[in-house]
Design brief:
alpha+beta; two-stranded antiparallel ribbon; about 20% helix; about 20% strand
């Protein structure tokens, strides 16, 4: 259904000091990312969810960027199409 595509990628890595960190990237469409109160609300929810899951000593750095959609500059909106990952046999 249009407006309902989402994708999440979770990766564990280490920083330059050898500390483990988790990078969670979420691509989703149909949300009002230009609305400050909405973005703050979502950041607050994700931060609380992650602190509950990883502990109060965790550091959470949420950010958002517009990948597709209404840029609010009068140009047509770009559409984000998320397809399932395709596995290709390298021997073909």
């Amino acid at each position: 259904m249009f407006g309902g595509a989402s994708e999440m990628n979770v990766k564990a890595a280490t920083d330059e000091h050898g500390r483990l960190y988790w990078e969670i990237k979420i691509r989703t469409e149909g949300h009002p990312v230009h609305e400050g109160p909405y973005t703050e609300y979502i950041h607050t929810l994700w931060k609380q969810f992650l602190l509950n899951g990883f502990g109060p000593a965790s550091e959470v750095r949420p950010h958002a960027r517009l990948e597709a959609g209404d840029r609010q500059d009068g140009t047509p909106a770009d559409q984000l199409i998320i397809l399932p990952q395709l596995k290709v046999d390298p021997h073909l």
